[in-house]
Amino acid sequence: MEPDGGGAHARHAQMSEPAGIPRAIAVLEQGIADGLHAGAQVYVSRHGRVISDLGLGTSRPGTPLESRTLMLWFSATKPLVAVAVVRLWEQGRLDLDDRVATHLPSFGQRGKDAVTLRHVLTHTGGFRSAVDLGWHPEPWEQAVARVCGAGLERGWVPGQRAAYHAVSGWYVLGELVRQLSGQPFAVYLREQILQPLAMDDTWVGMSSIEYERQEDRICAMANTAGREPQWSPARARSQMALLTNPGAGAHGTMRDLGRFYEALLRRGQGERGRLLTAPAVEALVARHRVGLFDETFRQRVDWGLGLALDSRHYGDGPALYGYGDHCSSRTFGHSGRQSSVAFADPEAGLVVAAAVNGMPGERRHEQRMRQFLGALYGDLGLTQSTVS
Question: How many CB atoms lie within 10 A of CB 371?
Answer without folding.
Answer: 18
